[in-house]
Automatic annotation (TrEMBL):
Subcellular location, principal: membrane
Lineage, opening ranks: Bacteria, Bacillati, Actinomycetota, Actinomycetes, Micrococcales
Name of the protein in question: ABC-2 type transport system ATP-binding protein
Cytoplasm listed as a keyword: no
Membrane topology: Peripheral membrane protein
Residue ranges constituting the ABC transporter domain according to the UniProt record: 3-233
């Protein structure tokens, strides 16, 4: 077991964002977390990666408690956080150099890995430009590269495919599959049910801060598409009523 989440709880004032989540993620798998907007996915992943302190519960990464032994646990993790807060006044190459060096890699290793990552993410031509000038998808890719540079056992990726073009998505999927094939583990959140269905081994459906269903994608789908099952668990689609004024054009 690479990641074990036990009884995680987080409250923000009167809002309970995460209401007691338990999950287990096995090595060599891709685990998808899906849920409606505001369900608590980012809050959960932030607690898993040591960015946000839980009110209750534990997170164990490769045997180390994230909150009791943060240095040990974090060494084994690569993180793509929500709302990327990058040092974007650095060039892509500088950002990767900073990330790798911070993770204890030698200069030679960082330089070699930067070249490999730039090629894999099709960012060769962008390496010498400021990250602040990157497009949304390019920013996502450089952040993903920075999360991987120290070859962690576990990658925790919040919406890794958001704003990423289809060719780059296929590329990233290929990179993640090979990483998992070699024994790595990925936990990711996404709103793309097709993608989750295609690439994940296991999935958890989180609604209102609680896991409503989890298991293999097959088990959770129950013979339907994951999207149909998701909409059912999330309480059904909203009826688009009450917007009649939108159909009476003002001109
Ligand atoms: N720092 C904060 N202060 C107050 N409330 C917060 C904070 N962070 C999250 N919340 C609330 O916690 C709940 C869960 O938010 P979270 O960002 O975890 O949802 P999510 O599942 O990632 O949503 P989305 O799919 O829209 O990204 C929401 O009601 C949100 O408003």
């Amino acid at each position: 077991m690479v990641l074990k989440i036990e009884g995680l709880v987080k409250r923000f004032g009167a809002t309970t964002a995460v209401a007691g989540i338990d999950l287990s993620v096995h090595a060599g798998t891709i685990f998808g977390i899906v849920g409606p907007n505001g369900a608590g996915k980012t809050t959960t992943l932030s607690m898993v990666t040591g960015l946000l302190k839980p009110d209750d519960g534990r997170v164990i990464v490769h045997g180390a408690d994230v909150w009791a032994k943060p240095a040990v646990a974090k060494r084994n993790m690569g993180v793509l956080p929500d709302r990327l807060r990058l040092f974007d006044r650095l060039t892509g190459a500088q950002l990767l150099f900073y990330s790798g060096t911070l993770r204890g890699l030698s200069r030679a290793a960082v330089v070699a890995r930067t070249a490999d990552l730039a090629r894999a993410f099709a960012l060769d031509d962008a390496l010498d430009r400021l990250v602040s000038d990157y497009s949304a998808g390019m920013t996502k890719k450089i952040a993903l590269a920075a999360a991987m540079i120290h070859s962690p056992r576990l990658l925790v990726l919040d919406e890794p495919f958001e704003s990423v073009d289809p060719v780059s998505s296929a590329n990233i999927i290929d990179i993640l599959r090979r990483y998992v094939g070699a024994g790595g583990t990925v936990v990711l959140s996404s709103h793309s049910m097709d993608l989750i269905e295609r690439i994940c081994d296991d999935v958890a459906v989180v609604v209102n801060g609680a896991v409503l269903d989890t298991g293999t994608v097959e088990q959770v789908r129950q013979g339907r598409t994951l999207e149909e099952r998701f909409v059912q668990l999330a309480g059904g689609a909203n009826k688009a009523e009450g917007l009649e004024w939108l159909h009476n054009f003002s001109d």
